[in-house]
Each structure stands twice: as C-alpha cells, then as structure tokens.
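Here's a chain:
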Amino acid sequence: MKPLRICHVITRLDKGGSAENTLLTVLGNLAHGHRVEVVCGVSDLPPSENEERARRHGAVITRLNSLVRELSPLNDCMAVLQLYFYLRKHPCDVLHTHTSKAGIVARIAGVLAGVRCIIHTPHGHIFYGYFSPLVTRIFVAVERLVTFRTAALITLTEAERRDYLVRRIGTPESIFPILSGIDLAPYLRTDIDRAAARREAGLPPDKYIAGTVARLDPVKNHDLIISAAQLLKGRIPALMFVFAGDGSLRGHLADRIEQAGLSDRFLLLGWRNDTPRLLRAFDLFVMCSRNEGMGRAFVEAQASGLPVIGSRVGGIPEVMMEGVTGYMVPPDDPHALAERIDKLYNNRNDAPAVAQRCHEWINPRFGSEAMVDALEVVYARFTGNGDGTGC
C-alpha cells in the first residue's frame, strides 16, 4: 500500500478512550509510513500528553478553538468553515473523523472541500444515555445525512454496528467493527509492586479495593456504585471504593457519599497519569455505564489481572467473558451489583487464577497492532489501493 496523507479530526486529544484510540491510530499510521495530520480542539488540561506524543513521532498537530465538545451553533459553524479552508489548503487522501460531534462537523467540511475518502469512528454512539429523546432524534437524523457521504463507519463492536443498522445509518457493506486497540505492555507488566502502588495512591494495605477509572459524568453512572456500597456497608467491613477521574459530577458524588455515611469507604482521587500502576492497587474493577461503545477501561483492567463488573450495555459484553473474567449487571440494579461484588469478595482467594484467565483473554486480541492492521485494510479498500474499490 502506498503512503497516504491522512487527516484525523477529534474534539480533544487529551483524556479518555476515544483520545487514546485516536493516538494509537495516529502512531500506527506513522509506523506504516503515512503522512499524518491531526486537527483537534483545545484541551482542558494543556499541554496534552497525547498531543505531544503524536508530535514527537512526526504527526502535524493543528488546534482549532471552535472545535468544542458541547453543542454550540456559533462554534460549530465556525469549525465547519475553518476545517473546510484547512482541507482545501492541506488536501488529504483520507479524512478520518472521531467521536460524534467532531464527526458531524468534520464530515460536512470534508464533503464541501471535496475530500473523496471520508472514514468515521464514532467511538461509541449517543443513541441513548446522553441526551433527551428529542435531541437524540435530531442527532440520528443528522447522522443519517452525513453518513450518506461517508465511505466507511468504524464501530468498536458488533453491537455498535447493529445499533447503527437498526437506525438505518450506513449499510452492512460500509460498517466495519474493529476492536479499539490498547497499548497492552504497561498493563501486562509483572514488576509493579502492589504494596508500593497502594502507598503511592494513599490506599490502605488491608482493604479490599473496588476501583473505577472514568470521568465523573452522568453516563458513567457512579451513583449506582454508591447505592451498592450502601447495601454492602454492614456485610463487608473491609470493602473500600475508589473513583479515579474528574468531571461535572464530582461535587454531587462527594455530597452523596457524605450524606450516605460512606466517607470512610470512598476515595476520590481525581485524574491520574499512572493508570497501569493504580490498577495494580485494586482488587476489583467496577464501572456500570449507561452507554459504552466498547469499554477500553475493562480491557486495561483485565490486562492488569483484575476481575471486572460492568453493565450489560453497548459493547461491554464483547470485552469480557462472563463468569470467567467478570460479571455483568443491569445499569439500574444496585442489588445485582452488590451481589456480584459480594461474590467476588468471597472468592478473592481465586485471584491468581482469575488474573491468568484475564491475561489469556486480552492478549493479543485487544492489542493496538491488531486495530491498526485492520484499519489499514479499510484505508486500502476505500482509497483504491486494495481490491480496486475507491471512494
């Protein structure tokens, strides 16, 4: 396959699964010899480590203040215009857009600029769990329109692919499920000392730690974990919960924990830059999202040897082996969550065997190399370098 000029567009290249996925895609593109540009919005936490890493490896980074995550008619129109002029000035063979908001804005600009091959990765859809029914219907209608001129949609799982098709977005021939790749090496390390990891995180050495690594946002459903903690308060004295991450719900969650009399059972760590080490301080990973494209955090946790509990939504059933590496619960049932936590606590002596099963399930199935190789096949097909089918 000849080298391509690839332009990636995403609202933020900072924290979270979509940004990590995009970064690994960019690094993989560069490793395959392509010329890569990234257009992104301004990070809330500058300087973005992901931006710097991409730049060090040879990607060209351009920031647009108008490219924001939230709905903003003025900024969104400005972003379309700025991206249009950018793409006219910097022609590309592939415009690869990421996340729902940037995907809509950038694909409109790409069509206007005459880009022939547009590929979109939603990184999980927003068909439920995010907005009101009216706003969701508007998004679906707009997505249908822009997808009409999109060569390929890259979903993270088969479940996400079905969600698009059932809403008449895309066609069976234009949607490709590709698991979101992870840089597994930091999580598979065997030289991280558990006791030291706990000391560094300020965690007690004698507690059973159920941890979460996610932004504090309604869709991540931290409230369910607090409800389950209330049910378990008198049953497992050694149980402690850790929320790593930050977001709009931090104050609400802190207040609710205090009101429930659980302040001694919870620790809110804020954002962490040492997730592989932090996961080694946990005994269990719990995240009960209302919507999840794939759930990269579950992959990272299992790669670290942790049993996982997640909600039965989106792509989560495809990233764990129920009853083998973890369990799934409804996203609105604290009793079910409490029972699963209790079960894993009572079987905690099986942790070494569970860790081995987790490693065998994750590696190499969820490695970044597999993701990048699969994307190369899609790029080749839709640029006319594969089976002759061009955009």
Remarks:
- Residues 73-89 form the longest helix (17 residues).
- Residues 381 and 389 are 6 Å apart (CA to CA).
- The chain has two domains: 5-181+367-382, 185-362.
